[in-house]
Design a protein that fits this description.
Blueprint (H helix, E strand, L loop, with lengths): L1 H16 L12 H8 L10 H12 L21 H12 L11 H18 L6 E5 L2 H17 L6 E6 L4 H9 L7 E4 L9 H13 L3 E8 L11 H11 L2 E5 L15 H5 L4 E4 L1 H4 L7 E5 L2 H8 L1 H4 L3 H4 L24 H11 L1 H24 L3 E3 L7 E6 L8 H18 L5 E5 L2 E7 L7 H16 L2
Parallel strand pairs: 2-3, 2-4, 4-5, 5-6
Antiparallel strand pairs: 1-7, 6-7, 8-9, 9-11, 10-11
Helix pairs in contact: 1-3, 4-15, 5-15, 6-7, 6-12, 8-9, 16-18, 17-18
């Protein structure tokens, strides 16, 4: 066990110390992976050390290397070594922060970490919540509480509002909660790609006049395409006027509140009824580290408490919370839960909050640098206002063509060609129904030189089209 464990740690350290080596993206065809992994069920065991080598060298590298300093696709994460060790320890201890009886120590770690996250985001102390797998489950959890609190179990005529720029997990959550597709009203954004409060108010007025039942609004703090931030304060005012639940999907963008320039966001976040936040994005944690926070934690308990859903009450009765204990399985959809909070706890204890604040600021400075370079070059143009370390842009055709389809094809071909070089990863998105290039610059290991080299590669690739 020690030999294999020491070898595994060596593999982890080697991986973390060589994040910049090789391409940021490697993909294998299904047929290749079938040859590599499509073996029969093993009846006899094999050498653990050799299997670890096989995984580390042949299998796990096949994908996006999100911590590569020239990986600008999606919302990359970096992870960190203390978080790796946290997963190792919590897995070995079979830690379950579900019922207090099952894991009082793990539950206390989660309570403390939630308190720290609230402090980082500027949320009042009475807010509560729990760690979940990511933004998708956080949105589902919050909207389930909103549905129960606002609608009382009757979905007839219910209406949920968001913008077309909202994350797909919002639509999926609505589906899982029993809402028909017509009951999710996705409004067109304003010119800055934000949910327009006036359009929202007009739609709510029309729906009320039609005898429908508006119950909640999802505002996005950092859309995935452009990083746009919906006008939370104005939306909160409308929600109060109409008695609607305001949920903020801040999976990426809520972390902006850690920075000096994002300090004003702290007040806006506190105006919501619930908030999604993903530490596996701009808090540099490994994946499966999401969080949902709510103004009134009792509303989570009203939806998810185990006693509400017992079929065989006797089996779980010994684990019911008593004397001020907190059972996290009363607050969300999972009963058996991993100790996701330990990754964040150990990271903050090891590095300190100031290191994370500096890292968020660094990502913002990189975005500023990239935007200035793009704006200054005649072959490139920004296509949205840079926001939350996300910027979109496009290459201008060298022949001066203005045909939309031609320009769109150029962006996709540039993205494909840049990825094929193995030197950087710049993917596309759609902004105002046009294909554009997109960069997310939150990696603390990325430097201005990486930005410059990537943009130069984009330009050279475009010239060769």
């Amino acid at each position: 066990m020690r030999t294999a464990g020491h070898h595994a740690v060596d593999l982890v350290v080697q991986r973390l110390c060589t994040a910049a080596d090789g391409p940021p993206h490697t993909v294998a065809a299904p047929a290749e992976l079938q040859t590599l992994l499509g073996e029969p069920l093993p009846e006899e065991g094999g050498d653990l050390g050799g299997l670890l080598d096989h995984l580390a060298h042949d299998v796990l590298p096949l994908g996006i290397r999100f911590d590569h300093p020239r990986c600008f696709g999606f919302v990359p994460t970096t992870g960190n070594y203390p978080a790796v060790l946290a997963d190792l320890l919590s897995t070995a201890h079979l830690s379950v922060p579900g019922a207090w009886l099952v894991g009082s120590g793990p539950s206390s770690i989660e309570l403390t970490t939630l308190k720290w996250l609230k402090e980082l985001l500027g949320l009042p102390g009475h807010w509560g919540g729990l760690f979940v797998s990511g933004g998708s489950l956080a949105n589902l959890t919050a909207l389930a509480a909103a549905r129960d609190h606002q609608l009382g179990g009757d979905l007839a005529g219910a209406r949920l509002y968001c913008s077309t720029q909202a994350h797909p997990s919002v639509a999926r959550a609505a589906h899982l909660l029993g809402l028909g597709r017509d009951q999710l009203v996705a409004l067109e954004p304003d010119p800055e790609q934000r949910l327009d409060p006036r359009s929202l108010a007009a739609q709510v007025d029309a729906d009320l006049a039609a005898g429908l039942r508006p119950f909640a609004v999802v505002a996005t703090v950092g859309t995935t395409s452009t990083g746009a931030v919906d006008p939370v304060t104005d939306l909160a005012r409308h929600c109060r006027r109409y008695g609607l639940w305001l949920h903020l999907d801040g999976a990426h963008g809520a972390a902006f509140a850690l920075s000096a320039r994002g300090h004003d966001m702290r007040e806006a976040l506190g105006q919501a009824d619930s908030l999604t936040f993903d530490p596996h994005k701009w808090l540099f944690q490994p994946y499966e580290t999401g969080c949902v926070l709510v103004r009134d934690p009792e509303l989570l308990k009203a939806t998810f408490r185990m006693a509400r859903h017992h079929l065989d009450t006797g089996y779980l009765h010994p684990a019911e919370a008593r004397h001020g204990e907190v059972n996290f399985d009363d607050l969300g959809p999972q009963q058996s839960r991993g100790l996701r909070a330990l990754k964040v706890w150990l990271s903050l204890k090891t590095f300190g909050a100031a290191a994370f604040r500096r890292a968020v600021e660094h990502g913002l400075h990189l975005s500023d640098h990239a935007a200035a370079r793009i704006a200054a070059h005649p072959g490139l143009e920004l296509t949205s206002t840079p926001s939350l370390a996300i910027l979109t842009f496009r290459c201008r055709p060298t022949d001066g063509s203005a045909d939309p389809a031609t320009v769109d094809r150029l962006q996709q071909s540039v993205s494909d060609a840049v990825r094929a070089t193995g030197q950087a990863l710049v993917l596309t998105t759609r902004v105002r129904n046009r294909t554009v290039l997109r960069m997310c610059t939150i990696n603390p290991a990325t430097t201005p030189a990486d930005i410059d080299a990537t943009l130069e590669l984009v330009l050279q690739t475009a010239l060769a089209r």
